[in-house]
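Bug #2210: token dump truncated for Cbb3-type cytochrome c oxidase subunit I?
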Amino acid sequence: MSPLLSFFTSIDPKAKPGIPVKVQLSEIDRSLKVPTLLFLIFAVIWLQIGSFFAIVSSIKMHNPEFLANWEWLTFGRARSAHLNAMAFGWANQAIFAVAIWIMARLCKTAVRHGGLLVIAGIFWNIGVAVGVIGILTGGLTSVEWLEMPPQVAPILAFSYVLIAVWGIIAFRFRQLGHVYVSQWYILGALFWFPWLYVVAQIMILWEPARGTVQAITNWWFAHNVLGLWFTPVGLAAIYYFLPKVLGRPIHSYYLSVLGFWSLALFYNWAGIHHLIGGPIPVWLISAGIVASVMMVIPVIVTAINHHMTAVGNARAVWASPTLRFIVFGAMSYTLVSLLGSAMALRDVNVVTHFTQFTVGHAHHGVYAFFTMVMFGSIYFMMPRMLNREWPSAGLIKVHFWCAAIGIGIMLVGLHVGGWIQGEQMIALDAEGNPKYTFLEIVKNLVPWLFSRSVSGMLLSIGHIAFLVHFFWMLAGPKISQYKDGPTLLARLNKEEGA
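Reproduced locally. Full output below:
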């Protein structure tokens, strides 16, 4: 049978999956080694590129003359390059690697048509590279999260289809039995992202809708990329690694069910609250506010599940490089989500809207929650795929503390500075006139923007430490080549709960 015919036969819904063959986890890891490492290598490289543009755009916020003579490094281009390098270069490829690895292990089936993932990875990185270069050379659009030239979209869509189809094939050929919580979230994300991306591309760039419908579509897409793409995979990773490393089951299966379906039901509407005060129907704004407040339900039940699973294991959490990042991300998910629900309230939104507070909120979700969880996932995956130990505990500590302190400084600076900015923007004197001029507000914001640049430097140091450690890991010796190899292998097996 030809490879093409074999592929279509494997995804034929009428074909019988047959009796699944039990596969050892080590065999699954080996079968996924090439495509997963391909995604991770490029993800780590894009993380460095995105960090560079992040520092450039951050410094320009309080020092506009910085690199002012470089046209391709103007604020608009540098900031858009940073956003897309991080979102499509780092975050999406981290998702591809972590999601397919978790899915394969939970399905307990060896990878089928792994070459599709390699092809998809190559085309995805070509698309991202062309898109970022297009941004830097002036070909960007004016749509946040979709700044890359529209011609890049078909390349990314083609690559994504190959990856998503593989995830569905893996689930279809899973061993019969229980479907795990992590599988719900990954499958949901695999179906939600193309729906978001295709609709946004068509209604904003290819066949633009008229008037404020474009703004509604833009916020619907931008908000749901975080809530229905980054968040489900982040939660899937937490639900997998937290009980896996601790060697204990998740606290409540039924809370997991409630958390998943309430997330799917409410988050789709939540992004509209960012348009409070805009020229759009009041009922739509009200629906967005209600959905944002109702998001408290999945957040609280998920927080209870995570906390009750980890309670009493503080020492084990701190001893595991994986759980340091995972637990930090899980706690951040709870905080950022509750804060997001509060920001949807009109009395709060009138202060935070159009300020750095909203920017800090975005970083809270994308970095403090999602990215930290991805770091922890990678720290668990790499030794098992390569049969090697991480070479340096010191570099892991440098990475963690630079990332944790760096994002902490950024969140404090942007939230506090943004709140002050918002209060000053709406402040009126006794005669009902603005109390502060625009220039005064900008000057008062400068120290907080400077703290953001300091945090960016710390984050970049952590990212460089991660880069060095990651490639050192790739080139390091196998466990069997260590004098204490059996001890290290036993530790890995213990961490698997074996």
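Output looks complete on our side. DSSP finds 18 helices and no strands in the chain. Marking as cannot-reproduce; reopen if the truncation happens again.
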